[in-house]
Every structure is written in structure tokens, then in C-alpha cells.
Amino acid sequence: MKIIDTHCDVLLKLQTAKRGIMYDREPLSFKSSKQLNSNLYRLKKGGVVAQFFAIFIHPDVPSDEKWQHALEQIDLFYSEILGKNPEMKHIKQWEDFDCLADGEIGAVLTLEGADAFGNDLVKLRHLYRLGVLSIGLTWNNANLCADGAEEPRGGGLTLLGKEVVKLNNENRVFTDVSHSTVKGFWDIIELADYPIASHSNTRAICDHPRNLYDDQIKSMFQNNGLVHIVFWPPFIKGDLEKTTIADLIKHIDHLCSLGGVSRIGFGSDFDGITSFTEGLENASHYQNLIDELLNYYSENEVKGFAYQNFLDHRPQ
């Protein structure tokens, strides 16, 4: 079955390797490097037909270097993912999904945290032009747009952050709530035309700051939003003990109980996570999840989770 995955951190790993910081100071190959959970071989084997690639700048990077780090990751997206692999097709506008041929994989560029552009909206407009189609205002820390999910202050959006959401609306770009505080979430819901949780689970099943409360989930569904589940064990069970696909499906069950059967998707967070759900250790194992889901849901419902819900509710 086809898969659309709305979050991975391949670009960060490619950049870290190119800078000689990890992986024995050897560059990684997107085509086949085993260090990449979502390399091209594994995407193909797992049936992934569209992969979202996040630009992520670690908060330890000095402020005056963040834009350069973002440009390096974008360059790797163009050179190493698109440039060397003709089956990877850049999705620069939502209609491009409809033009993918058999054997092609759509590649979508996203931004995880507004740190990359600071308060410079010219840089933000450049990101739109380069094809960024989804923007999360924060990671876990605070920046000039908002507080992140683990910032103790727990603040919402700044005036700058609200302006960014409005610009996302004008450019038909998702505003991603996955790393938002509770207050920031409600600020986004009030403003965003295209809300998404690209990689979040349910707080009723696992009480973690990165997961969503029931009232947040219901509001997402009522406001044309999508909630894509994430595969990292601490967001599934709250610990690093053995986590199974059955544990992950509990979150899908809960989302469905809240009225989300047509608004659920997958956002693995592969290459950004350090432990794995048993049977979902990399993108090549995606069909294990599909097979298990088919034991509980109809084929049409599972197709919805896997790809069709996203296609039906992408920005128009």
C-alpha cells in the first residue's frame, strides 16, 4: 500500500555527516547509507510515495549561523536527494502530487522551527520560493515566533509568529503544531487556514508535552486539520521499554474515537529518533504497520491513514 510520511530528519543527518561531525567523518549516501532510516532503498521497499524532509537547526547553533545551516540542508535536498536520484520528484505545489508517475517518490521540503529565519521575513519568503510547504514555528525551545513544547514558560505566539501564520495562509503552506505549547496551539488554530500535526500522538494515551490533548485533537478535526502519528516510543508509551505496533495503534484508535478516521496520517520522525517501535525500525518496514492495521480497520480506512486522507485534505 502507498505511504505518505510527513516528517523525517534525513537532511540533518546528511549535513552532520558532510560537516564531518559524525558517521566516521564520511558523507552519507541518500540512496543506500544504512545510517539513514529513510534512505531511497528503504523508502521504495516500504512503499513510500511521498516523503517530507524537514529543515531542522539545533538550538545550540549560534544565531548568526542558523540561516547558513538552513541553506546547507536545502542544498543537500537539491543536490543529494533530487539531483542524484531521478525517481525523486520535487513537490513544490500541492497539485504536483497528482503528477507523480508509478515508481516516482514525491519529495516535500518543510521547516521545523522558525529559528532559521529569525525575524527576517525576506528569508521566509525565500523559503517559500525554494519550495517549503509546511512550517512549524518552533522545536522544543523558544524563539522569536513562539515558545516550544518544552519551554517552561509555556507562552503562545508573538506578534511575529502570528504574522508568519498569516503568510503561511497566503502561500497555501501548512502551519505545523507538533512542537507547539498548548497556548501556542490555540493561537495557531485561531489563525491558521492549514493546520497540521506532522508528527504527534495523543496525550490521553501517553502524557507527553509533544502529544495533543483531546480538545486540541477535536479542534484540529473541526478546522480542516490533520494529525499524523509519530513512531518514537517515548511519545507512544512514555518510556523506552519495548514498544510494539499494537501500542501505536492505540493512538490511532483514540483518534478515530474523536472523529478523526478521515484525518489521520503518518509522520514517522525517522532519522530524528534514537529508539524504535518493534517492527518499525526504518521506512522499509512500513508495510508491517499496514498489515497490522488491516486486522482492525477496513482497507479503505487504512488507505486513508496511509495516504488518501492527506491527499483529500491538503491545501487547496
TrEMBL record:
InterPro entries: Metal_Hydrolase, Pept_M19
A single GO molecular function term of this UniProt record: metallodipeptidase activity
Alphabetical list of CDD domains matching this protein: rDP_like
Gene Ontology biological process: proteolysis
Source organism superkingdom: Bacteria
Listed PANTHER family: DIPEPTIDASE, MICROSOMAL DIPEPTIDASE
Protein name: Dipeptidase
Organism: Virgibacillus oceani
